[in-house]
Here is the input.
Amino acid sequence: MGIAYGNNQFVSVGFSGKIQSSPGHAVTWTEQTSGTAENLYSVAYGNDQWVAVGNNAIILTSPDAISWVVQTPPNAFTNQLRGVAWGNGQWVAVGGGGALITSADGITWTEQSTPIAVTIYDVIWVDSLFVFVTWNGKIYTSTDAVTWTERTSGTTEHLRGIAYGNGTFVITGVNDAILTSTDGITWTLRTSGITNGFHKVGFGNGVFVAGGNNGVIITSSSNGASWELQTTPTEKHVYDIAFGGHTFVAVCHNSHILTSDIHGTHGNKYDIIEYDQTSDEWTVDFDASAAYIGCPEIEHTVKSTCETAGHTWGTVKFTQNAQDSQKWKWNGTEWISAIEANYPAGYWRLYL
Here is the structure.
């Protein structure tokens, strides 16, 4: 599963071809038709286009994250694709067996050779350099995505994710594998003290955020030199993290989505949005005159009220068949909004 931010929206991809998009701060999500049942592992935005990749060399493109088209991989190419990035005027997708393919437009792809045969898990382009990370602790760099040079990592642990921010590359992997570099060439081993194992890592607002097994999320405001374990409301594996606007969004096992402004403009903790796992996510059609989440003006009104009352983040609880359907209430623990309809009870984070 993967997530990315671009063109003022978040897009997440997952198992069985699932694609969801959310504008703004990831409060509401819409499932899109992907045209595939293959598992999707990574998505990226670049050159005014979205590209998603996954099992059996599946490649999807979209101009708006709504309409998706399945593209044809290179002839006889069937490798699983785990990561994708835009840089230097081309798309680069990486995956199983040392697979790497490139494309100028996301439609026509060319297979490139790499010096390895293990899974390449993630790839990034920064300034004039591509960097990819692999199983068995390998790191390679390239200026053109054709010729690759191995760099010394100092570890044989499997590496899964790479991010860049504040002049620093950060790589994460299993068994507390964390590496940092200022140039992508020379790498330094770091440690967080957490041995759950990490998946991918993101950067935003001066902070690196890494997700791991069993709901683990760690953050670093020191360019990866030291890390702090955060409290999260889930025990599910956290696969990928993206930052947009002033919100971090993480995708977890079973389509769970975590969001946080802990290092953004507002808020002080993580919260969770829950979906129906047995069918399409349910939606609620609100009366335009009612004070409900989903309307920017109403969100701002509630935000102001909440801040005036001295509260920060809260959970919005929709209760069935309640009498008071057009008011927010603070019960000392959470904001509550009731709706007079036979909708399933659910919990949504209130955007403050």
